[in-house]
Each structure stands twice: as C-alpha cells, then as structure tokens.
Write a structure and sequence with these properties.
This is Nuclease SbcCD subunit D. GO terms for molecular function: exonuclease activity. Pfam families: Metallophos, SbcD_C. Helix 1 (about 20-35) runs parallel beside helix 2 (about 55-70), helix 5 (about 135-140) runs parallel beside helix 6 (about 150-165) and helix 10 (about 345-355) crosses helix 11 (about 365-385). Strand 18, helix 8 (about 305-315) and strand 19 form a beta-alpha-beta unit. The chain has three domains: about 1-265, Purple Acid Phosphatase, chain A, domain 2; about 270-325, no CATH class; about 335-388. About 30% of the residues lie in helices and about 25% in strands. It is α/β, with parallel strands linked by helices. The chain is built from eleven helices and 19 strands.
Length: about 400
C-alpha cells in the first residue's frame, strides 16, 4: 500500500505578518497532483490542519476545497487533530464525511477504532491518535498519570489490543501528534510541555508497522518506522535550512517499508544574514538573497540610522531585524559599586550608552540631550525639596 504522509498545514497562518494562503493553496494543489502522479492509495494528515482553534473563513474554504478534490480523486484520507486545531470543530460531520472517504479522527476515545483499508496483500488498519492533552484525556484513556508518555502509552495499549483481535497479518499504521524523543524542534511549534516533560520515547509506538507523526516542522526520521513529515511551508526563520517534503511510504504485505521524500513547492527562500549593516549592503556574495525573505541580525556597535529602510533597498523582502551589537569583554570580577565609584550621574548614563552599544559612547548631540534631562530632573528635585 502506498501512503502519502503529510502534516502541520497550519492553514491560515502568516509568516511575520505576510499572508500565506496563496502559498498554502499552491501546496494543496501540489498534494493533489502528487496523489495522482505517484499513484497514492491513501493520504494521512498527522494534525494541525489549521493554525488556530477558530480558523478564518478563507482557511476553511481552502480545507473544504482540498477535501472535495481528494474525494473526487477516489483516494481515502485519514487525518487527526493537532494541538492547534479545535478537535470538536474539526470533527463536525465526521460521520457524513467518512462516506466520501475522508476519515477524521478527533476523539481520543476512538483511538482504537481504526480505518481499515485493503490492498492485494490484505488489510491495513489506520489508527488515529489526535493530540492528547494529558489533563483532559487521562481519565478517558485510563492513564496511570497525567503526562504525555502516560496518555500516549495508554492509547497505544488500546491500539495494540485492537490489533491483536484482528486477523493475523493485519498491518497497522498509527497517526499521532506529539513530540517524540530524537526529533529536532524549531521555533514555530507551540510548546506542549507538561510538568517539564514534552518528549516521549519512540518505543511507546512499538508493535505497529508505521507511525506518521505531526507537530515538529522539520521532515525527519526518528526510527525507520517512526517519522515526521514536517510542515509543507516554513513558519519561522529557524526553518531556513529545512527541505520541506512529504513522505511517500510503500508498505509491503509482510510489513516491509520503503520511504521516499517528495519535495514541496517553495514560495520564497529564507535567508538569515548577520553582520555590520554596511557589509550586508555591499557584499556581492549576498546577491542570491535579494529576493529571499530575510532576517537580518546587525552587529554594529552603535545602532545605524534607518537600518530597516536601508536594508529594504537591497533586500525588499526583509521581514525581521535583530540587533546584537558586538561588545568589548567586561571585567566580570569588578563589582557594580566598583565600576561606578567616583562617577557622577551623567558619566554613569554615558557609560550605560557605551555598554549597550558595545563600547561606542553617545554622540555630542546625545550628550546634550542627556545633560538637559539631568538638569530637568535636578530642577524638579529642587522644587520638590522647597515645597517640603
């Protein structure tokens, strides 16, 4: 059976306030085309269909459209809710939609009720484990305690029990939305830590043929049978080095597994640039990034004038500007009192400006502003004292 594994669509999300609906629509076009091109038997979507619990109407229309197209293609789809989705909203009409071959699994209590599909080699049971918030599902699943590993273990115990009751040779695929140990996170996933522990061991999923994971946005292999597809688009600059893909999984009759990555379309490359502003504006090696979405980290000791406007002249798609001035090493052994001894308020203020600028003190104009500010404070203090 040929399975196309995808996840973390985050329909409706923006990238540093840039709308991504067109790019998401292009990805879904690519998904439907890949289903046809690669003769896919089933599509699995491992959670975070939407970016928020109450998605925009435009995001809902996009989702509705791709469901119709997958149904028209005659390819069954199994999907679960993620931690960004509202499980109840996503699951509305699941019974009716299933008649068209779109199987939504959003109720933790149904995790051991599989979607059973068949090929020439026999049955494949697809078990959908929606995102399991420990405090909310502990009692439903009979978990021994409220933690990610505990609730996932309880859910998988139910899966294995159901699988054992099925005909010998039934293959099993699990969809789950979780942080599995060995996975590499990025800045764009929402934290799901409970009690200081977010990651669960991959061994929780032992006993099945393939685990299609969602939540982490980088495509990666935890074990040969446990994989993240990653998000189809980058949602933070920390993903600038990601190759966005889906997994094409061939599951043989005896559980043999072959995996291939199918690349996703890239609306615009990402670039993280770092250095002095003048260098970034003049370095010919950076020409290749002039049409990229750019995050620029400036290391100038003093903040340059109009840095964003100047960057936009060369890199018109600059979206993020960070200041990390180069600083002279400090004497860590000197106490705060020692560093201030013998210095008046004005000198201390100038020292502070030099400190935050990596050693570059205030200009003469800035010194004039500082002197005026201190003079005003002294006048107010003097008037207050007279009033007393």
């Amino acid at each position: 059976m040929r399975i196309l594994h995808t996840s973390d669509w985050h329909l409706g999300r923006t990238f540093h306030r840039v709308p991504l609906l067109e790019a998401q629509a292009a990805y879904l076009d690519h998904l439907v085309e890949a289903v046809r091109t690669h003769a896919v038997d089933v599509v699995v979507v491992a959670g975070d269909v939407y970016d928020r619990a109450v998605p925009s109407l435009a995001a809902v229309r996009l989702f509705d459209d791709v469901l119709h197209r997958l149904a028209d293609a005659g390819v069954p789809t199994v999907m679960i809710s993620g931690n960004h989705d509202s499980a109840r909203r996503l699951g509305v009409g699941a019974g009716l939609i299933a008649r068209a071959g779109i199987h939504l699994r959003t109720d933790p209590g149904d995790c051991a009720t599989p979607v059973v599909l068949s090929d020439t080699q026999g049955d494949v049971a697809f078990y959908g484990l929606p995102y399991l918030e420990p405090a909310l599902v502990r009692d439903t699943l009979g978990a021994v305690k409220a933690g990610h590993e505990a609730v996932l273990s309880a859910a998988m115990d139910r899966v294995r029990a159901d699988l054992a009751s099925r005909p010998a040779g039934t293959r099993a695929v699990v969809l789950a939305h979780a942080f599995v140990a060995g996975g590499e996170p990025s800045d764009s996933e929402r934290d799901i830590t409970v009690g200081g522990v977010a990651a669960v061991p991959a061994g929780v999923f032992d006993g099945v043929d393939y685990v299609a994971l969602g939540h982490l946005h980088g495509s990666q292999t935890v074990t040969e049978r446990v994989r993240y597809s990653g998000s189809p688009l980058a949602y933070s600059f920390s993903e600038h080095a990601h190759r966005k893909t889906m997994w094409l999984i061939d599951l043989g009759g005896e559980g043999q597994l072959a995996a291939e990555r199918v690349s996703c379309p890239v609306p615009r490359t990402l670039a993280r640039l770092r250095g002095h502003l003048d260098v970034l504006l003049e370095d010919p090696a950076l020409e290749r990034h002039e049409e990229s979405w750019v995050e620029a980290t400036l290391t100038d000791p003093a903040r340059p004038d109009e840095p964003m406007a100047r960057l936009l002249e060369r890199f018109p798609h600059t979206l993020s500007l960070v200041f990390e001035p180069e600083r002279a090493p400090e004497d860590l052994l000197a106490s705060y009192a020692q560093r201030l001894r013998g210095r008046d308020d004005h000198q201390i203020a100038e020292d502070f400006v030099a400190h935050v600028r990596g050693g570059s003190g205030p200009s003469e104009q800035e010194r004039t502003v500082l002197r005026a500010a201190f003079d005003d404070v002294r006048v107010v203090d003097g008037l207050t004292e007279v009033a007393r």
